[in-house]
Amino acid sequence: MRKSFKLDEIDCANCARKLQDELASIDGVDAVSVNFLTQKLTLTAADDRFDDVLQRVVARTAQIEPDCDIVC
Amino acid sequence: MNKKQRRWRNRIIVALVIFAVVMAVEQSGLLATLFGTPGDVYASFVLFLIPYLIAGYKTLLEAARNIRRGDPFDEAFLMSVASLGAFAMVLFPLTEPHMAEGAAVMLFYQVGELFQSYAVGQSRKSIAAMMDIAPEFANVEKDGELTQVDPAEVTPGTTIVVKPGERVPLDGVVVEGASQLDTAALTGESVPRHVEPGAGVISGCVNMTGLLHVRTTKPYGESTVARILELVENASEKKARAENFITRFARVYTPAVTLSALALAVIPPLLGMGAWADWVLRGLTFLVVSCPCALVISVPLSFFGGIGGASKLGILVKGSNYLELLAHVDTVVFDKTGTLTSGTFNVVAIHPEAGVNPDYVLSMAAHAESFSDHPIAVSVRAAYSGEIDQAKIGEVSEESGHGVSARVDEHVVLVGNDKLMAAHGASWHDCDLKGTILHVCVDGAYVGHIVIADVVKEDAEAAIASLHDAGVRRCVMLTGDRKDVAEAVAARLGIDEVRAQLLPQDKVAAVEELLSAEKDGARLAFVGDGINDAPVLMRADVGIAMGAMGSDAAIEAADVVLMDDHPSKIAKAMRVARKTMRIVWQNIVFALGVKILILVLAAFGIANMWLAVFGDVGVAMIAILNAMRCMRVDV
């Protein structure tokens, strides 16, 4: 399943790149892209684990970029 | 500016004012008279710390958080180290104090960050405005009353009402009313389109004059407007080589500069090459230029802007990578029908035999062909201005691939090509015009022929000329037409090479052959009308589909989609692509050049921190402003 979310307050392009690198290494994430310009996070993960993976992605994002919210 | 940015700006202004006051106080020598020496140094240390903390406390906190997380190569961390390091120089009693630089590094860093945030927000907004084609509601008639509903809730087959001034919310067919539609937002075309009952309408157009009742044909998610928006939004995910280069570069640049800074601060003094303070300061200066932000922001921003600008012209580019490829196209291959010619046939000439009225030839042909759906028959009927009297027409027999024989007014009429004439033993003669020749024979006597040709688009010739101007080496035309017909069209349009008499399946092979003849680094673009040419569109380096208003297949298979059917848009797309690439490389060369220059100067102790701050935020600002030029397309 592939789904897009809006990212609030992602202010620095280099941070977005790093966030993407970090999120990609999370277990269960098949593909993830953090688009700094469109402020969009696109996550691809297996259907049955999607919610679980999304939760981990949200938690990791909060850790790396505390200012940045994922709007589901 | 949003609320957060306004607060940020106010904080920076307060810090800047205090900084200026402190600078003035320090320069006036007031501190020395008040606190003596070295008391004045400590006093100014404390005073400079005030604007420093006001402007930078958030950055310092973020840096602390990053240390806890174990990620030292973060911009906030490096800026904090550089500025705190400058303050810490006060510990070396024999060197000049550097508190002013420390505070300045943080202040200007904040100014730069705020500017970046603002500039990026602005370009996001202007691209969003450019793409502001999403309809907000659809008027659905229910029990005689109009209600506004979300377009996503309207099912295909519903009749909706579009008032003048409103945007067409869904693709559909006009069932009642006539109006002019403004398609500018979709196609870049300023001439409005006239629609009346039976005509298809595309979501995203603006209804200008009359009230329209439209029966929807697609759900919102599959409508033109939704597909365009999705396509443009996702375009930045397909990264260009230049972007990937920057991403890879950014990964190594910061660690490399940071490690060099450490080496510079520690190794020379250990080798006894000078004072610690001097080298530590040079190392700190390195840290200030260690962020690759100017590149990481400006390069994707340029592509984003280029794609946004192109879409304003009705050119949808499906990814930054295609924009990059488009800039290097030197061969453009056209599938003739639908790109250079409109794909509709027209009667271009009627050549009656001596003593025969041309209207008689046309009338006979139109009557004989009156039951056929063949495009040629349609064009003959379209050219005939008189009434077709069905009662006059007797038995009709169609001879596939050759023509028809029919009984009209008790005459035996033959209409068709050479083979039909030969088969019936009629005499006929050739024509000097190029095109499809339709011979007409009545009761065994040849009365003349009608010349039918595919209509060449108005701007086709100009399109080829502007492609050559834009540096395209060869324009190739593929067609199923006879060789002489194809060559006549090609000569008229200025096409360099023709492949005629191709069957649809030969087109892939033809493109493959042309591809293998390409020089290194040169690219081939294929232009098709999106009908039955998906394999070729995919095989070419850049597949361009045109006339895509409403054609799903074309939008799917192509890399670049032209919303209208003007071939002249191809050269425009190339110009946008080239401009974008030029700006991208300007930024890469400029930002890297300045940073490397500052690094070298800093290593030799020539560049100070003030210059390094410019190398960081100044360069980023200039690169962003330059990148924003990509959005402006006035070709």
Automatic annotation (TrEMBL), chain A:
The scientific name of the source species is Thermophilibacter provencensis
**InterPro entries per the record?**
Heavy-metal-associated_CS, HMA_dom, HMA_dom_sf
Query: This chain belongs to which protein, by name?
Result: Cation transporter
Q: Which domain of life is it from?
A: Bacteria
Which keywords label this protein? Metal-binding
Q: Where is the HMA domain?
A: 1-69
The lineage is: Bacteria, Bacillati, Actinomycetota, Coriobacteriia, Coriobacteriales
For this protein, the record's PROSITE patterns field holds: HMA_1, HMA_2
TrEMBL record, chain B:
**Which part of the chain is the P-type ATPase A domain?**
134-233
Q: Per its UniProt record, what Pfam families does this chain match?
A: E1-E2_ATPase, Hydrolase
> Is Metal-binding one of the keywords?
yes
Q: Where is the signal peptide?
A: none
Q: How does it sit in the membrane?
A: Multi-pass membrane protein
Keyword list (alphabetical) reads: ATP-binding, Cell membrane, Membrane, Metal-binding, Nucleotide-binding, Translocase, Transmembrane, Transmembrane helix
* tRNA-binding in keyword set: no
Specify where it is mainly localized: membrane
- Transmembrane portions of the chain: 12-35, 41-61, 73-94, 100-121, 256-277, 283-304, 584-604, 610-628
From what superkingdom does this record's organism come? Bacteria
Q: Where in the cell is it found?
A: Cell membrane
**Similarity field:** Belongs to the cation transport ATPase (P-type) (TC 3.A.3) family. Type IB subfamily.
The record ties this protein, via NCBIfam families, to: ATPase-IB2_Cd, ATPase-IB_hvy, ATPase_P-type
Query: Entry's PANTHER family?
Result: CADMIUM/ZINC-TRANSPORTING ATPASE HMA2-RELATED, CADMIUM_ZINC-TRANSPORTING ATPASE HMA4-RELATED
Q: What is this protein called?
A: Heavy metal translocating P-type ATPase
Organism in which the protein naturally occurs: Thermophilibacter provencensis
